[in-house]
Amino acid sequence: MPVGLNINIVGDPTELTAFETRHVPGALKLSQEMGWPYRSEDWEFAARVGEGLVLERSGEVIGSAMWWNYGQAYASAGMIIVARFAQGGGNGSRLFNALLAATEGRNVLLNSTEDGLTLYRRRGFTVWGTVLQHQGQLNVPVPAKACADIRPATVSDLPALRAFDERATGMPRGPMIAALADVGDVVVIDRRGRVTGYAIARKFGRGYVVGPVAAGSAEDAQRLILDQLSRLHGQF
Fold this sequence. Notes:
CATH superfamily of the largest domain: Gcn5-related N-acetyltransferase (GNAT)
Number of domains: 2
Shape: globular
Radius of gyration: 19 Å
CATH architecture of the largest domain: 3-Layer(aba) Sandwich
Strand content: 25-35%
Number of strands: 10
Strand order of the largest sheet: 1-2-3-4-5-6
Largest sheet: 6 strands, mixed
Distance between the termini: 36 Å
CATH class of the largest domain: Alpha Beta
Mean pLDDT: 92
């Protein structure tokens, strides 16, 4: 949804507009300033499967916000960044208010840094849980356990994959799951011809990311993750 707005930073006009492909280099610079390991390809993928907003000043991207549509009731948001020199002048609030307006009343989920909690709580967000990062060079081989029920997914599994994800999350994330499956490697738990879990591994940031993962139990989720890790020895 295109949004137009003029504000003022040190006397220069700042425009709030829809994220376009031309904004990728500027958005990449923002994430690099924050120490976030996004690649250009990660920004391009996020924009391709979602929608976004940017703040521009004299052609320079000084803020970004992305969101992804999960049907009429839900959405998720992320990649919300304001350049350090532009923080503290209301730019974060303007950007996030525009994002919430674009989501049109959907229940929005996001992962927040500690610095962002105050802004989000002011908008009515509540803390739901804590996300922990587990990352590093995978230098210790992870042997894949002989699991007769875990196999690589095929194109014909996609409808079952989408249906299982919706049951697991309560959100219709079908287009997102299809896009992730298209760029990643997917394994599923197949029990008598029925998909009861999946895990996607794909290139991201410094190396690879395993996720999303959905399963009927924590044990099944762990087995799926170990299966993916068994093929990523030496990778980050």
